[in-house]
Design brief:
The structure is a single chain. This protein has one domain (about 5-155). The protein has about 160 residues and is an all-alpha fold. The longest helix has 18 residues, at about 135-155. It has helices at about 5-10, 15-25, 40-55, 70-80, 100-115, 135-155. Helix 3 packs antiparallel against helix 6 (about 135-155). The two termini are about 15 Å apart.
């Protein structure tokens, strides 16, 4: 496992990190074996696609008022606390898209990731369904952490 200080320096707004995540996505196969959890690789790609459409504002999310909206808890969850391996109950709108065609689904996700990386971190960003209002900086770290978590889930 990487030291927290290294992970905290990673954001999808960094071109080198964006390139690394894109390469790791391209290295996935639809039959990749999961190391934990229940999702298949195609389901994981669909799940990450849902997350990207929310953070880019393409699809609005339903805010859920939880303790994660409280700034110190949100900060700890995004930057410090390792995410659990296994089934975590996320918001329903993070599991809407269903896999259709591997190549098409993967290219759509990569396009969304590249669009995110080209966005302005200082812009006004949509609310996250669980974490509430986040700055671009938070979204950049959150997205990297989320992608890294799921890519490791499939050995990437």
């Amino acid at each position: 496992m990487e030291p927290v200080t290294t992970i905290m320096n990673r954001t999808l707004f960094d071109p080198a990190v964006l390139e690394d995540v894109t390469a790791r996505l391209r290295g996935l196969t639809p039959d990749a074996a999961r190391q934990w959890g229940r999702m298949s690789a195609p389901q994981m790609v669909a799940h990450l696609t849902d997350q990207m459409t929310h953070c880019l504002g393409d699809v609005p999310c339903r805010p859920e008022r939880t303790f994660l909206h409280w700034p110190p808890i949100r900060h700890a969850a995004i930057y410090w606390i390792p995410w659990p391996k296994g089934r975590v109950q996320g918001p329903a709108d993070a599991f809407v898209t269903r896999p259709v065609d591997w190549d098409t689904d993967l290219e759509r996700l990569i396009g969304l990731v590249e669009r995110f990386g080209a966005s302005d971190p200082a812009a006004d960003w949509p609310e996250h369904s669980l974490f509430g209002r986040m700055r671009g900086r938070d979204w950049g770290f959150f997205c990297y952490k989320h992608f890294d978590h799921h890519l490791r889930q499939f050995g990437r």
